[in-house]
Please model this.
Amino acid sequence: MRPAGAGTRIVCLTAKSKNRVKLVWHWLKIKHGYPNLNSLGKMAENNVSEFLAFGFSVATGFVAAGLGASAFQLATNQRLSFEIPDWTLLSKFLLAIVLVLAGPVILMRNGLRGWVLEKRHPGWLAGTVAIATGWSFISGLFMLHMALAMQV
Model:
């Protein structure tokens, strides 16, 4: 059993440190116009809306990638991979379009497989997630732009 207060830090502001905090706060108000709570609220609101737009775009791209990979698997009865089979020129062109759309799903599947089955370093998975997120963001942004352009 731990004694009370063991392993905890107690922060106590003395009168001198309280005055320093007040001086710093006052200096920020005079020098930089802080705290302007209205502008801070608007800034936080803008950051949240930008983050939500980013998340919506990533989700749209990843869903489109999953649908593309599933449609390919349904049509050909093969798993989608970055390997280009020996097909006709038109089939290779269509496969390239599907690969551009469904790339994040292939990356995530291979990354998770490497981490779980092949016991790769978690850094590989983190890199894969970062690349797949960026790819999903760009493809989702493209999909949303096309949807808005077509007035869907």
